[in-house]
């Protein structure tokens, strides 16, 4: 129906006007009834969503608090300190092992020199055995006249056998130690470059892993806070919807007030004389006021129905899936990091194994030093005995006179052997001093493998183990909470279908406001066409006294004042406290 229908008589116009007002009043009555159930349904749904959002906020706050309390960066710092300690420890050990390797090479050279000395001593021992045989032959030739020379021959024979036995023993032990040192040197020479390369690769791998984890944790640590902020915004939107829906009772009263006002206007027109009485300007003013009131109601409803849609969009986007991925991701990264640390610990143990082998080699070297030292002492005794043998031979040759020429020659040979032995003994002493010096240097280098040098490393390992335990605990807590949060958000998403259907029904219900406004505005324009002076002839104070008893909210009073006196219409703003204040 349209209010612009041409009216042929005032009576017809009056009747048409009253009919349009009655239809508008009936439409408002239907709007009130049809929207009541939907508004109540929306209120219940959003109250439920509000309680679910509160649970999500509590869980998000718990996750944020847990992450902040057990800071992931603390764990990373512990791991970084451990990696630094392990790297420094391994580097010190590698440097010490490299220096020991060079020392072993020097020791191997000295042992080769000692082998040469030993071979010379073996030659002297063979020479003495030959002299022993020659002495025995001379004793047989001299017969009874040999006297003390026979005792000299026996002593020389015994001494040569003892010297040969000692020399063979020294040569055998020297060769055995040389083989041990050569084996250790060969093994270290082959293993150290691999260990150094493996350590460098591990250091790079751990550094890369730490950077990845740090970036990941920094991103993931912000996810619960982002979710918390998003949930807070959504909860605020829900609270706004709940407040607006609860305040819809005031909007319903406003609609009822417009109905009553339309009834009054209709009654005033019905009592007028063919639309020419003084009641018409007041009716026209009242009609404009209802137009403004309906526009205000329309804007209010549009605001909170729009907020319902925005809130639904926010809930639809609300998801804990990103947070749910934090726990498994952190646990997976922690496992990778733990694996890298275990590999690094394996390198540490491998370097410690080298320490044991080098300690064993040094033990062999130490026993060799003791053996050579003992041999040097015997060498001094051997030289002294050779000196005595030489002097006894000279004395015996002098006693025999012309018959002692061979004995004199034997004495000269013993003297040569003594001098040669003395020179060889000095060479042995020089080699021994070199071995002692290298052994002392190696002992100093071996301090890098001592337990005392690993104290900080052990402390860092303990702290890192505790830090990684905290990381696992936090990740497990986050995973558990996030699973519950995701379930809650899924439930909220499931509730949106019902809310969406109800929202569409509300849109249909309140959509009639546009048609009502069009009808009433058409009537107002029709009045203006019939009497262009209507707007100037009504008494604003009288109209206000006439309609004000029905307006019980502040915004209704403000709208009426603006419509009567030409002021600015109030701007309807969405408020989480409602959409108006009821005065009485």
The proportion of residues forming helix, as a percent range, comes to over 70%
Structural class: mainly alpha
Average pLDDT number: 75
The residue ranges in which pLDDT falls below 50 over 5 or more consecutive positions are 1-8, 575-584
For the largest beta-sheet, the strand count, sense and barrel status come to:
none
Shape: rod-shaped
Straight-line N-to-C gap: 37 Å
Radius of gyration: 56 Å
Note the run of SSEs as H and E. Answer: HHHHHHHHHHHHH
Q: Got a strand count?
A: 0
Q: TL;DR of this structure?
A:
The protein has 584 residues and is mainly alpha-helical.
Question: Overview of this structure, please?
Answer:
- By secondary structure, the chain is mostly helical.
- The protein has helices at 10-69, 72-142, 148-246, 248-270, 279-317, 321-324, 326-400, 405-445, 455-510, 512-530, 534-537, 540-547, 554-565.
- Helix 2 packs antiparallel against helix 3, helix 2 (72-142) packs antiparallel against helix 9 (455-510) and helix 3 (148-246) runs antiparallel to helix 7.
- The chain is rod-shaped.
- It starts with 9 loop residues before the first helix and ends in a 19-residue tail after the last helix.
């Amino acid at each position: 129906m349209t209010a612009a229908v041409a009216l042929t008589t005032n009576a017809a116009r009056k009747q048409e006007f009253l009919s349009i007002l009655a239809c508008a009043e009936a439409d408002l009555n239907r709007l009130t009834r049809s929207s009541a159930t939907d508004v109540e349904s929306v209120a219940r749904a959003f109250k439920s969503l509000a309680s679910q959002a509160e649970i999500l906020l509590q869980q998000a706050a718990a996750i944020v608090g847990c992450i902040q309390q057990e800071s992931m960066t603390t764990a990373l710092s512990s791991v970084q300190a451990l990696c630094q300690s392990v790297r420094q420890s391994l580097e010190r050990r590698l440097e010490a092992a490299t220096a020991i390797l060079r020392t072993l090479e020097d020791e191997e050279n000295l042992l080769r020199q000692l082998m040469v000395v030993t071979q010379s001593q073996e030659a002297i021992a063979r020479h003495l055995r030959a002299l022993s045989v020659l002495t025995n032959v001379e004793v047989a030739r001299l017969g009874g006249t040999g006297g003390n020379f026979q005792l000299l021959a026996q002593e020389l024979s015994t001494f040569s056998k003892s010297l040969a036995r000692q020399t063979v023993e020294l040569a055998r032990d020297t060769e055995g130690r040389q083989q041990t040192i050569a084996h250790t040197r060969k093994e270290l020479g082959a293993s150290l470059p691999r260990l150094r390369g493996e350590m460098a690769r591990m250091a790079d791998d751990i550094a890369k892993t730490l950077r990845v984890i740090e970036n990941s944790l920094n991103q993931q640590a912000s996810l619960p806070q982002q979710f918390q902020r998003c949930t807070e915004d959504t909860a605020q939107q829900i609270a706004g919807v709940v407040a607006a829906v609860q305040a819809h009772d005031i909007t319903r009263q406003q609609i009822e007030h417009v109905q009553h006002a339309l009834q009054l206007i209709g009654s005033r027109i019905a009592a007028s004389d063919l639309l020419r009485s003084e009641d018409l300007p007041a009716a026209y003013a009242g009609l404009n006021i209802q137009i403004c009131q309906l526009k205000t109601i329309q804007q209010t409803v549009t605001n909170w129905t729009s907020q319902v849609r925005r809130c639904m969009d926010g809930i639809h986007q609300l998801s804990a899936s990103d947070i749910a991925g934090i726990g498994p991701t952190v646990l997976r990264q922690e496992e990778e990091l733990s694996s890298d640390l275990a590999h690094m610990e394996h390198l540490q143990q491998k370097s410690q194994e080298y320490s044991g082998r080098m300690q064993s080699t040094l033990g062999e070297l130490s026993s060799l030093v003791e053996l050579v030292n003992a041999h040097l002492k015997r060498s001094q005794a051997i030289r002294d005995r050779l000196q005595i043998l030489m002097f006894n031979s000279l004395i015996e040759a002098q006693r025999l006179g012309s018959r002692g020429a061979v004995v004199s020659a034997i004495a000269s040979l013993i003297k040569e052997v003594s001098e040669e032995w003395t020179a060889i003994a000095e060479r042995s002493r020089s080699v021994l001093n070199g071995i002692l010096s290298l052994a002392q240097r190696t002992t100093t280098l071996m301090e890098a493998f001592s337990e005392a040098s690993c104290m900080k490393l052990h402390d860092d390992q303990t702290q890192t183990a505790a830090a990684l335990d905290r990381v696992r605990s936090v990740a497990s807590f986050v995973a558990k909470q996030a699973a519950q949060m995701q379930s809650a958000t899924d439930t909220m998403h499931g509730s949106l279908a019902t809310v969406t259907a109800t929202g569409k029904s509300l849109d249909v219900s309140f959509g009639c406001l546009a048609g009502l406004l069009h009808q009433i505005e058409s009537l107002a324009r029709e009045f203006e066409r019939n009497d262009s002076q209507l707007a100037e002839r009504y008494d604003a104070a009288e109209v206000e006294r006439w309609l004000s008893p029905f307006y019980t909210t502040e915004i209704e009073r403000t709208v009426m004042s603006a419509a009567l006196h030409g002021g600015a219409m109030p701007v309807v703003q969405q408020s989480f406290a409602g959409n108006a204040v009821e005065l009485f």
